[in-house]
Write a structure and sequence with these properties.
By secondary structure, the chain is α+β, with helices and mostly antiparallel strands. Helix content is about 25%, strand content about 25%. It has helices at about 5-20, 70-85, 120-125, 145-150, 155-165; strands at about 40-50, 55-65, 100-105, 110, 130-135, 140-145, 180-185, 185-190, 200. α1 packs across α2. The longest helix is centred in the first third of the chain and has 18 residues, at about 5-20. The protein starts with a helix and ends with a strand.
């Protein structure tokens, strides 16, 4: 799958800076590549550069694939939400953007894993390749991007436990077949430094 990732990251940054400075949501640019008008899901992640090796998470909000919104519109909406509406953090202020890197993760269509025994998940999910969604009913749903277990050094069982907790379920809910576990892949594009060179990131 090929996407105009550099364009999308630049758009996310411009969206945030315009919204923080002028309180206005930008419109979709006329020169937007056609591949950004499909209905893929996307997450926008903000990291604050620090003196430590690993940057600090500053916000992460996204949208799963939707027939009602294009990838480019979802990126605009998610960028604003990541900067101003992530309940884990205070809203970003405009001056902070000089020290924040912007990252977008484009999602493939989630695939529900049909299993007869939960132990089968260990052969169907690959750390560093698959993001996970845990869901029970229409209202309890949690999602983790594929880079998260790598960044946190989790094994697969902990990964499954945590995505269930993210859904508001008991950590072992994945062992109950009433809990749906879905996998997806992510295409990650990120600034190497704040407002710097944009690269396609490989999960290691």
């Amino acid at each position: 799958m090929s996407y105009s990732g550099e364009f999308l990251v630049k758009l996310a940054r411009k969206t945030i800076e315009t919204y923080l400075k002028d309180k206005k949501k930008i419109t979709i640019p006329n020169d937007a590549p056609k591949d950004l008008f499909d209905h893929s899901g996307v997450f926008v992640t903000l990291h604050r550069a620090t003196e430590r090796k690993d940057p600090e998470l500053r916000g992460c909000i996204g949208r799963i694939e939707s027939p009602h919104s294009t990838l480019i519109q979802s990126t605009i909406d998610s960028a604003i939400d990541a900067a101003t509406r992530d309940p884990r953090f205070p809203p970003v202020i405009f001056e902070e953007m000089e020290s924040i890197t912007v990252e977008t993760t484009i999602l493939t269509v989630p695939e529900v894993l049909e299993v007869k025994d939960p132990s089968e998940y260990f052969n169907l999910i690959e750390i560093g390749k698959h993001g996970l969604i845990a869901q029970r009913g229409p209202y309890q749903r949690g999602l983790l991007l594929p880079q998260v277990p790598v960044e946190q050094n989790w094994d697969l069982e902990y990964y499954l436990n945590y995505v269930c907790l993210k859904a508001g379920l008991p950590s072992q809910a994945w062992t109950d077949l009433n809990t749906k576990i879905s996998r997806f892949e992510g295409f990650i594009f990120s600034e190497e430094t704040p407002n710097g060179v944009i690269v396609r990131k490989e999960i290691k």
